[in-house]
Design a protein that fits this description.
By secondary structure, the protein is α+β, with helices and mostly antiparallel strands. It has a single domain, classed as Nucleotidyltransferase, domain 5 (2-Layer Sandwich), CATH 3.30.420.10. 24% of the residues lie in helices and 29% in strands. Strands 3-2-1-4 form a four-stranded mixed beta sheet. Helix 1 crosses helix 2. The termini are far apart.
């Protein structure tokens, strides 16, 4: 009789794609992937984004330090900056825009038209 031991192979874990991973948009649509980051709560804060067309060509980039903020403010400010850049650029007028962000709170605030947004953001002028 053979004495066999079980051998388990430890395969590397497959990571889920990042919510901010770029996925091509429909023809003529533009996609802005944006993010905010803080070091501490609150702490030094940065925002960034990349705008690509449906073929993956980079149309616009931004990366900014925005002072001492909390993480929710960072995320909503990244969305706000993408909207402002899109609205101020006549060369991309006529395109649909998709803005992707990994914060469900910030996306909820950005999509909410009924007024239940953060008081701090209303005071800071992002509304």
């Amino acid at each position: 009789m053979l004495n066999m031991k079980e051998h388990w192979v430890d395969f590397p874990r497959i990571k889920k794609p990042s919510p901010n991973a770029w996925i091509p948009s429909y023809l003529d649509d533009l996609k802005f992937n944006v993010d905010g980051s803080t070091r501490g709560k609150p702490g030094p804060t940065g925002i960034s984004g990349v705008l690509k067309n449906s073929k993956g060509k980079i149309m616009c980039l931004f990366s900014l330090f925005i002072g001492i903020q909390d993480s929710n403010t960072a995320e909503i400010m990244a969305i706000h900056k993408a909207c402002m850049l899109f609205a101020s650029n006549p060369s991309i007028a006529g395109h649909n825009i998709i803005i992707v962000n990994d914060s469900s709170t910030a996306v909820s605030w950005a999509n909410n038209t009924e007024g239940s947004r953060s008081w701090a953001l209303l005071v800071s002028g992002t509304d």
